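[Archive record]
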Amino acid sequence: MILDECLELAAACVERMGPRRIVHALLPEARPDPACDAEFGVLVLDDGCAGLYYAWLGETQQHMARRFPPASLVGRDALELAHTLRAGDDAARSVAVAALNALTASFWRSVDHIPPPATDSFGLALEAGRRLGMVGNFPSLVRQARASGIEVTVLERKAHMVKREPGLEITLDPKALAHCDQVICTAATLINDSLDEVLGFCAPGAQVAVVGPTAGILPEPLFARGVAVVGGTLLRDAETACQRLAAGQKLGDAGYRYRLVPELYPGTRSLGFN
């Protein structure tokens, strides 16, 4: 499983750089609203690095701050917390993924690695004549792709969203991904524990990108499964980021979007284990 392999890599990083403890937690209540920007939770470590998680999954993330009181997380070892919550439900995995993402950022800082910036939000160069698959609905990209003559298949979890029209299919059936040449997958699948399954339905030759602020894990487990692009977000200034997110604002310059590809990523062990 991807998260299990991420935990193994994170443990090796902690062995090299030393343990990291949580000093602040922002766990917003899940209130998805298509009229607003998505919200994210944050865990901040004692070295100032932080990890994000997507906070709009809905009912499965209800009462986050009640279940995991932020004060009870302060002082916890980040790796131990990720191990403890990895096998839980969506709410528990949200916190575990944020802890893993924070450890990734901490490790990269400890070895002076700055991942290359993303040139766009989605990581793949869309090509006319191909079918684009989406795991998670990205309305702006759907419009862009259809305007370029690209047929789109969206994998959804909500039955009322299902529809078919010229150039667009919204389906509950993950087998539909097998017909897509390119697939853009939300990293929220790390939280609902569906990413391994979703990648298994993609065609062997498909270009797959896993993107979003939740995608801040060490990328090797994804590259090993054929993922072509991992696009995540680092927080340049965790304090400012938490203030903005708590106020319902965008990250702005407190965040930094990056894009990793297997041929250019040096490898976690090459970065810090020589």
